[in-house]
Structures are given as C-alpha cells and as structure tokens.
Write the structure tokens for this entry.
Amino acid sequence: MIVEPVEVQDFLLAVIAGALIVLAGAVYALLFAISRIQGRPGLMPFAYAAYATLVGAVVFLARAAHFSGFWTFIAVLMLLGYLLAPHGVWRLCVGTHPEEVP
Amino acid sequence: MAAAAIGVLDTSHLNGGQKLAVKYYTVAIVLFVAQVLFGILAGLQFLYPDFLYGVLDFNVNRMVHINAMVVWMLMGFIGSVYWLLEDEAGTPVVGLKLGEIIFYVLTGAVAVVVLVYLFVQVGPGNDMTRWFINEGREYIEAPRWADIGIVVAVLTFFFNVVATVMKGRATGITGVLIADLLALFGLYLAGMFYTTNVSIDQYWWWWVIHLWVEATWEVLVGVIMAWALMTVLGTRRVVVQTWLYIEVALMFGSGILGLGHHYFWIGTPDYWFWIGGFFSALEPIPLVAMVVHAVYDSGAHKMRNSNHPTLGWVIAHAFGNFFGAGVWGFMHTLPQVNLYTHGTQWTTSHGHLAFFGAYATINIAMFYVAAQKLRGNVWMGAGIAGAWRWKWALFLLNAGMLTMTVALLASGYEQSFIERAIEGATWSGYFAGQSHPWFVQGMQWRMWGGWVMLLGLALLLWDLFTIGAGETRKAYSPSEDEAARTAA
C-alpha cells in the first residue's frame, strides 16, 4: 500500500497530535494577534511557545504515521503554513482596515 | 395602511423577499424539529435494537434524520438569501410570485418524499424504486422525480437572484452569491445519474456531498455572514467584501481538492492519497489564521451590536466551525489514521459538531434577525425581557451537541480499536465493536446529549416566537452610532 498506517499502540497519540496541531496553531494565532493589537510584546514568546508545541506535534505525527518523501514535504509545508499564515492575515487586516490600525 | 406597532409580530414590517424568507424559515424550523426527533429515535435504536423494529427501522429513521438536516439547512440558506436580496440589490425581488409558487411546490414535494420514506420505505430495487421511492444514495436519497423538482425549484430561485441583481445594484456580495449558487446547483446534477459501478457512483456522489459542504455551503455562509456583520455589527462594506473574496480564495484553494480525503478507500487510483493528504493537511490553516482576524475585529468594534442573540449564535458558529471542522476533522483525516476511523462513530462525531457548528448556528442567527424585524426592528440588546430564554437555548443546544460529540468520539475510538485494528474490519469484528461496553456507554451518553438538545430546541422555539414581544424600544443602530461618534 502507498501509505503505511500508524501502529495500533501509536493510534491514540497520533490523533491527539493531529488535534494538538490545530489547537496549538489557534493558540499561536490568538496570542500573536492579542500581542499585536494590544501592544503587549510580552505575549509574543508565549505565542511562539504555542508554535513550538505545534512543531512537536507535527514531528510526533510524522514519525507515528511513517512520513517519508512526499509526506515529509507535506509536514514541512504545514509547519510553514501555520507559522506564516497569522503574519499574512495580520498584514491583510491592517491593509483592509486603514483607519482602524491599533 | 398604518404601520404596525413596534414589538408586535407583523409581516407588514417586511419587504417582499423577507416575507418569502419567513415562509422558508418556518419550514426550516419544522424540519429542524423533525431532524432532532428522528435523531432521538435512531439514537434509541442503538440502545434498544427492538424499538420500532419492523415499523420504523433504524435505516428509515437515520435517513429522515439526515435528509431533514440537509433540507432544513438549504431552506434556511435560501430563506436568508431572499431575506437580504432586496436590501442588497436595492430593488424588489424580480419574479417574486414565481418564487412564492415554487416555495409551495418545493414544500409539498418535501412533504410527499418524507411521507413515502415513512410509509412506503422500500421498493423492489428497480427503476420504479429509484424514480418514486428512494434513490439509494446516502444523504441525498430523494427519488428521481423529486431530484428534477429540486433542480427546477433552485433554478427559479437562481432566476430570482440574478434578475433582481441585474435590475438593481450589483455588489461584491451578490457577485460571490451568484457564482456560488451556480456551483451549488450545478454540483447537484453530479448526484443524478445511475451506474452499477459503486466506485464510480461514490466518486460522483462525493462531488455533491463534499463540494457542497466544504466549498459552496461555506461560501454561501460567508455571504450570509458578510451581510449579517454589516447589519448587526455595522462593519463597513469594503472590509466585509474584501474578506469575503479572501475567504473564497482560501476556501476554494484548500477545500476543493480536499475532496481527496473521501477517495482513500472507495477504489479510486492511488494518487488520491497524495492529493487528499496534501489538501487535508492545509485545510485547517485558513481556519486557524482567521483567529487573527476575529481578534482584530473584536478589538476594533468592541462588540457593539444591534442583536445580542444573533451575535451569540455567530460566536457559537466561529467556535463550532473551528472545533467541528478544524480539530475534529484533522484528527482523523490523514489516510494513515483514517484507515482505522473511516465510517465509524468517529466520523459521526465529526459530522455532528461540524454541521451544527458551521451551518445550524448561522441559520439560527438569521432566524433571530428575522424575529427582530418581524416585530418592527425591535430592541434586542441588553435588558430585553426574557433574555434568559435565548441564553439558555444557546447553552443547552451547544452543551447537548458537545456531549453527543464527545460520547460519539468515545464510541468511535472503541470501534477503531476493536472492529478495525484488532478484528481487521471483518463482519464479526463489526458486531464485536458494536456490542462492546465502551461503545454502548458512549451511545448512552450520546442519548443524554440528544435529550438536552431537544430541551434546548423547545426553548429556542419558545424564544423565537416571543422575543421582543411588548418591547417598545427601537433596535440599536451600529451605523447611526458610528456616524454620531464620528461627528462628535
């Protein structure tokens, strides 16, 4: 088969890792946005700590799901996407609300 | 004719399109009740398999439960489009009379289809069955005559929208709406032919199911939300429209080929593993990135709004969509994991939270917009009489749904282990999974969630028919407030 399924003993941790990727991504985006909009740079390290959690979850999922070749590329793309998307959306927010820049 | 008093339920407060919308909303609410009731029956049959056996079997209850959901949501969306069309185009709805006739035809057809589902149930499995009883395609079981009727009805609806926009004002919102409706109705045709090859059948069937739910419905909700944000929060049109375009690009960019995650196990070529895996991995990123926009907007607007229940349901929509579609979806979407979870209660858990969070919530939000206008644009802010009803309805419906989601997840987890991993997805494994105590306990908890939802639904109905009664204050106007503050 073209994909090798996760081992049974890794199944629970693999799905938790999947959920954690999205949740940690959201916490990163949330703290990033609050830090910027309220001018609280002290929150930014916590935002990147959430992103670091996301990285850990992606690495665990990639190992549990036997990622190699194209699947590794997908994992790298996910890491870049979750890292950069909040920056991109922030720039779009500033650009589309010109008179409301905090 | 004298204008009706504020606080009194009267359709003279509405324009033509909005009067038709209220009819669609009424049928949508009836079908919402049917969805919950038949869901309760189907849930009970998991616990008591003999319950209504031979009278209303599980397959019939489940079919009515899901079909009622699909149709009430569509009725809600169509109603919402009629609701905003006249305001948005700046002219009365063109061909409204035809729209009215089609509404009654569509409602009658839905009633006949449901009665046939309930009282005829099955046929001999030939062309007569396909044309007049049940087409057999999960979620879109409507027989062929009804399919054709649905196409005619939606084409009339499409004509109403296009002709009105052409006569009146074209905006970014109506532009996206027309393009989306074209895709919505075109895709329905993919589920309207017959083949004996189940892989080919499933391949096209997913075009209707996935591309409706994860592409065209999402955009339709984006259109309705865009209009609602302008009305309820007073967000400027240029901002709303720009974000609508961005949302469409992101949604279609990752959503369309996310279709591949349904093609893992139906006999399609191997390359769907790559395509499905790639786009499914990217699908949650726009959802996550939008958290930034939500924080930005809440910071800029301070949540001043004209309709508290609507805003409450819009917030429930944001959370429900994020958890139901994003977290619950990505948990089991990669093929390495999905091999174990596909078609188990895990999928049911995801489906329940995602449909409720992404679509039911936004329709309920629009019901409250209608309730406010039906009483003469009455005050629906702080201090409204009986506010506990909408708050408790919101809480109970969401708490009930969350209970069901988590309970179904527990049952699905057990099924993935016992039925799939240990028993190797065999026939005996299926029954071993279904009779395991953890599965049964999950189903018992799911029933409690269902009862709580039923209670929440009763409260919601009571509130929708009574909210604003006797209120004499006019609604807060975000746009007038903005103008006053700017002038000051």
